[in-house]
Amino acid sequence: MRRTPIVDALQAEEASKEIKICGWVRTRRDAKGFSFLELNDGSCLKNLQAIVDEAVPTYEIIKDVTTGAAVEVLGELVPSPGKGQKWEVRVTKLALLGSADADDFPLQKKRHSDEFLRQIAHLRPRTNKYGAAFRIRSEAAFAVHKFYRDKGFFNVHTPILTGSDCEGAGEMFRVSTLPATGVEAPKEGSVFDNDFFGREANLTVSGQLEAELLAMGLGKVYTFGPTFRAENSNTPRHAAEFWMIEPEVAFADNVDNMDLAEEMTKYVVKHILENCADDIELFAKFVDKELMGRLENIINEPFARVSYTEAVDLLLAAKKKWEFPVEWGIDLQTEHERYLAEEHFKKPVIVYDYPKDIKAFYMRLNDDGKTVAAMDVLVPRIGELIGGSQREERMDVLLERINEMGQNPEDYWWYTDLRRFGSVPHAGFGMGFERLLMLVTGITNIRDVIPFPRTPQHIEF
Amino acid sequence: MRRTPIVDALQAEEASKEIKICGWVRTRRDAKGFSFLELNDGSCLKNLQAIVDEAVPTYEIIKDVTTGAAVEVLGELVPSPGKGQKWEVRVTKLALLGSADADDFPLQKKRHSDEFLRQIAHLRPRTNKYGAAFRIRSEAAFAVHKFYRDKGFFNVHTPILTGSDCEGAGEMFRVSTLPATGVEAPKEGSVFDNDFFGREANLTVSGQLEAELLAMGLGKVYTFGPTFRAENSNTPRHAAEFWMIEPEVAFADNVDNMDLAEEMTKYVVKHILENCADDIELFAKFVDKELMGRLENIINEPFARVSYTEAVDLLLAAKKKWEFPVEWGIDLQTEHERYLAEEHFKKPVIVYDYPKDIKAFYMRLNDDGKTVAAMDVLVPRIGELIGGSQREERMDVLLERINEMGQNPEDYWWYTDLRRFGSVPHAGFGMGFERLLMLVTGITNIRDVIPFPRTPQHIEF
């Protein structure tokens, strides 16, 4: 007999003579002549209650059916007289699949700190909070795919291993099959001549450049995959390995780009509210009391849009003490981003047309010669959620900008080639998937929206 | 005015007074007083024909509107008198977005070899074949997500960076921020004490172990992400970076596992046939004449299932000269796998219960003490498409197997922990996404189903 997932049992339309449920015991309560088990199998937040009468043949094993143990029960699905549950199971057969010694099992029924749970990241998916977080993560990922597919985008897998170390060499992880020690620099050529790829290889920090290549053939594409930063910074918003969503659209300008970013953010939030109601409710209740208001605001209000120059004026006019002084030309810091989104606009705000000197070479130079057609989406609590731009499609301007940034155009022969052969205006952005999840759940530490986070000194599991 | 993707224009229900089309010129033909342009924007295989009359104000730029150039046209969508196309555009405004010098543009209208196109992987998405391949890749990825979500699985992102080098150390890529040369082994401790993670870090070869951890909380999960092998082998079936789909199911045995593998394979093939008809037709016509028959067979016929022992008997009875001699205990080679699928069964075949000595420690030991509850799906032309097993859920047997394989149980404290706390029978498998795409398209080289393939000595783009 096939097991029925608890999510289906709880939504059953009618009682059932025989049902098989498997799950982990969240709690056991014993009464005279029978025991109540709260079972959870991960399929949803809610538990299913199973009642085991002492008449059940294997009732004597009940002493081992402790919190954390796994059981299989056969029984009858019947209406529950209890509050808050429509159905319960009257058990006719009980089997212990795996015990969980009550003295050792770390997830006893009590509140555990996030720090403690990170140390047992292999077990925390069995808690309400992390089960909910990872179910939401899954559904948000699906929403991303569905959104782009419905809009005619193609999902492309851009490479993780890259030979280009140009976008910030110091912060990349090097990938190698050479020995870790005892390697001497050769007299001629490069040490990497003998490496797997015959040249230096790194982990990608962004799939953008390759996504652009694909957009120039397929029109509208997006990547959704892991990216890497070797930044030695221990903040609640940074991880060494995280997932990014990067759409790239041919025949699009920076306004199209902002429209897409806003539409996508709203879509995913709405999809999660509609498809993960129970799990979101947990976060709204126990993690962030203002969560629902913020999510409703994201869905219902148009995002504010201001130029960088206007944003700087707003920051200068603000009656705030800034840790990082504000003047035209600075890169906005999290304190500035959060002020704009949280205090000034009280909703997401898109800042566009940034000074060219603080942005990458590939962003399209505006006619003023001072700014580029970049745009960032800033949201309350997080700051930057999305960063993007129209890309420089003009060969001469692009080459000038590569040189200005002190880089070598030959490293980008394939990238500049696209400006030689059927160049078109195009735009795209990158959204940190974990930041989106922090926004959606109210979770404040990036380590808690990633099943097995990687940060400096942490690579366990 | 917004551009209309060509896929939408071609499926229009009625003519339109004004439409904007952007795309790359596949061909231009000039006639007396007007020119025909075949435009493609990547949204589908088919081109849209645009007719530019010499009366169009900018008609003089037509000389630069060569193969590979990008244009924007405004015009009227009208019924086409030509064969094989319902609609065409009568252009009223023509703009050149980017030219493509006819002498330099590598993709002139002629047949190019796959080898040549790999060298210009940044441009090949603009060819019919690779456009089709990457659209199919996208749709197949969506089908995978949809299949699992509809069945109540959660998508989990298992880590790419791993501290465990246990599954085949020699074939892993090391990830480091230490200098590449001049590093000396320290007198005490490890050289990796000073590395980013404080220990040796590698790129994952499989998300399985972490997926198991998540399945023990969420019930049914799957990973779909990049995996890495540092094998220095140049075969048409191997790449250093490829994507894998790995479901992991709690409360499931090896028969459930085979059922899931078969159902999933059929689902994706069916989805592609239904959603990518034009693109598949290209492969059936020009790449593999037997493609449609093979795909129909996969959908309509139940997969064969035989034990490893039966499979060995079939191979011994076959009137074939084997390069690798057959006897009970050997690992099946591609020649054996293909014989079973192509010649003996003439359809996909699932081989189960392999000798324990050729399989990994985590596969569940059968009662015979000689075999494990593994299963591989073998398909015509490819050989192994899927490999999986029921996992060893019994702590004592698992520890014995880890020791037998000469590994250290302490490296797996979190993996074995799951057998201490609520252990349950569970099973899962890994499917190479690129092999699935080779099966679906008839493409024979893995380098041609990956946008930017990584193989020994190749990391360009």
TrEMBL record, chains A, B:
<keyword id="KW-0067">ATP-binding</keyword>
<protein>
    <recommendedName>
        <fullName>Asparagine--tRNA ligase</fullName>
        <ecNumber>6.1.1.22</ecNumber>
    </recommendedName>
</protein>
<dbReference type="InterPro" id="IPR004364">
    <property type="entry name" value="Aa-tRNA-synt_II"/>
</dbReference>
<keyword id="KW-0648">Protein biosynthesis</keyword>
<dbReference type="InterPro" id="IPR012340">
    <property type="entry name" value="NA-bd_OB-fold"/>
</dbReference>
<dbReference type="GO" id="GO:0005524">
    <property type="term" value="F:ATP binding"/>
</dbReference>
<dbReference type="InterPro" id="IPR004365">
    <property type="entry name" value="NA-bd_OB_tRNA"/>
</dbReference>
<comment type="subunit">
    <text>Homodimer.</text>
</comment>
<dbReference type="InterPro" id="IPR045864">
    <property type="entry name" value="aa-tRNA-synth_II/BPL/LPL"/>
</dbReference>
<dbReference type="Pfam" id="PF00152">
    <property type="entry name" value="tRNA-synt_2"/>
</dbReference>
<dbReference type="Pfam" id="PF01336">
    <property type="entry name" value="tRNA_anti-codon"/>
</dbReference>
<keyword id="KW-0030">Aminoacyl-tRNA synthetase</keyword>
<keyword id="KW-0963">Cytoplasm</keyword>
<dbReference type="GO" id="GO:0005737">
    <property type="term" value="C:cytoplasm"/>
</dbReference>
<dbReference type="GO" id="GO:0006421">
    <property type="term" value="P:asparaginyl-tRNA aminoacylation"/>
</dbReference>
<dbReference type="InterPro" id="IPR002312">
    <property type="entry name" value="Asp/Asn-tRNA-synth_IIb"/>
</dbReference>
<feature type="domain" description="Aminoacyl-transfer RNA synthetases class-II family profile">
    <location>
        <begin position="130"/>
        <end position="451"/>
    </location>
</feature>
<dbReference type="GO" id="GO:0004816">
    <property type="term" value="F:asparagine-tRNA ligase activity"/>
</dbReference>
<keyword id="KW-0547">Nucleotide-binding</keyword>
<dbReference type="GO" id="GO:0003676">
    <property type="term" value="F:nucleic acid binding"/>
</dbReference>
<comment type="similarity">
    <text>Belongs to the class-II aminoacyl-tRNA synthetase family.</text>
</comment>
<dbReference type="InterPro" id="IPR006195">
    <property type="entry name" value="aa-tRNA-synth_II"/>
</dbReference>
<keyword id="KW-0436">Ligase</keyword>
<dbReference type="InterPro" id="IPR004522">
    <property type="entry name" value="Asn-tRNA-ligase"/>
</dbReference>
